[in-house]
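SEVERITY: medium
COMPONENT: batch folding queue
REPORTER: lab tech (J.R.)

DESCRIPTION
The queue accepted two submissions in a row. Attaching both inputs and their returned C-alpha cells so the on-call engineer can compare them side by side.

ATTACHMENT 1
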Amino acid sequence: MKFAVKTDIGKRVHNEDSYLLSDKSEFPLLFAVADGMGGHAAGSVASSLIVEQLAGFDSKIEPGHELEALREAIENANHSVFRAAEKDRTLRGMGSTLVAALILGKDYIAANVGDSRMYQYHNKTLNTVTTDHSLVEQLVLAGAISKDEARVHPQRNIITRAMGVSPDVDVDLFERLWVPGDILMLCSDGLHGAVEEEDIISVLSSGRSLDSMCDVLTQLALDNGGTDNITVILIRFEEGDAL
C-alpha cells in the first residue's frame, strides 16, 4: 500500500487543518484529516488535538472489534477537545470536522463528523463514501437543491455536526471493500469544495505518482479560487499487499 499527503494554507492566515498518517507497516492502519474552526488559531488547536488523540490508536485494536474501537476513539477525541475548550476561555467555541479511514486489508472502515470527505476511486469512477453533515447536504438529500447548486450556495460552509462542540458526538461509520488499484481520498472541504469531481477523476486516473497527484489536486483548488485551507491524503491498494 502506498500513500501521500499534501496540506496548504490556501488564502487563510492560519492552516487549521491537521492530518494523521499511520506509521505502522502492518494492518490495521489509520489515516485522518481534521479541519479546525474557531478563529484566533483555536481551530488548529482543535484539529491537532484530535490527531494527537488518535495517533497510535491502530496499534491498540483487538481483532474483531475494529468498528466499536474506532467509534470509541473518536468519541474520546471529541471529549478531549470539549474539555480543553472548557478549561481555556481563549479556546471557547473551537471545534473541528474529521474524516478517518481504518484500513484492515481488503476492507476498511470510514468515519466522519462534519464535511471533510472520503472518496473511493475504482475503475475510473469516483464514489463518495461519507455523507457531509452540512446544511447544503440536507437540502440536496431533501431534493431542494442540486449538487451543482450546493457547490455555490451562500450557506455551503454551515456544518450541522462537529467535533468538540459538545461532550458527546454522533459518528457516522461505513464498512467497505476495495481492490488493488483502488485509491481512497480523504480531504477537507478546501479541496472538494473547489475541485469538480470530473477533474478529480482525471487526476486519479493520470498514472502520476501519489505525491504528484496530491500536488496537482491542491493546485487545482488554488487555481479555482479556493480560499480555504486544503488537505488531501491519497491511499492506493497495491498488487501484492498483504491481507
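ATTACHMENT 2
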Amino acid sequence: MDEFQIETAQNVGINQNVASIGDRLLGYLIDSVVIFCYFIATLLLLGAMDLEMRDVWAIYLLVNLPAFLYYVLLETFWDGKTIGKSIMKTRVVKLDGSKPSFANYFVRWILRIVDVVITIGGGAALTILIKGNGQRIGDIAAGTTVISERQKVNINDTILKEIPLDYVPTYSQVTVLNDSDIQKVKNLYDEAVLKGNHNIILNLYHRLAKVMAVDPKEKPIDFVATVIKDYNYYTQSM
C-alpha cells in the first residue's frame, strides 16, 4: 500500500495510505451496481403505474436525478464516501488531510466525464499510476485524493515496539506514564496518522508535554512517536 505525506497548516506531517487501484475499481463496480439497481427499480415501479408514455419518461428522468448525482451527493453528505467506498474502506480527502468542500466534490464529479466516461476509466487509471498519490484527473483539479482506512492488525497494535540496541531515549519523564496510558496514546496516535487527523496529534502533544513536564522541540507527530519509543525502551530495560 503506497503512502504519501501531507503537511498540515499546523506543521504536522501525516502519512496517508493511498487507496489502491484495485480497491477503487471494486468500489466503483459496487457503486455502479447500486445505481443500476436504482434505475431498474424506478423503471419497474413506473411501468406498473397507469401513466401516459410521455409522462412516464418525464417522471423517470426526475426520480432518477439522485442516481445521476449519486457521487457528488453521497460524498458531500457522507464524509467523502459512497456505498462502494464505505465497503472498500476508502474515502475522499483534500491533499492536506482536511475534509473537502462541496466545490471540491463537484469538480471531481464533473470530471468523471473525462476520467471514466470518455476514456472508459483509462484516463483515471493512467493518471493514478503516474501521480502516485491516488489522484485521477478530477482529483488533481479538485485538490483531492482517495485514501484507504484499512487497518493492519499486527504486533504494532500493542504497546510493544522494536527498539534498536543502540537506541538513546530522549525523555526519561515517560516513566510517569503506565501501560494503560501508553496504549491509549498509541491507539489514538496510530488512528490519527491513518486518518490524517492532525488535531488529535496536537492534543496528544500538548497533553503529554504537560503530564511529563517537558518542553519538546520536535514536531508534534515526532514527539508523540518518541514518547512511545522511549516508554518501550525503559519498560523493556527493566
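NOTES FROM REPORTER
The longest helix spans residues 21-47.
No errors were logged for either attachment.
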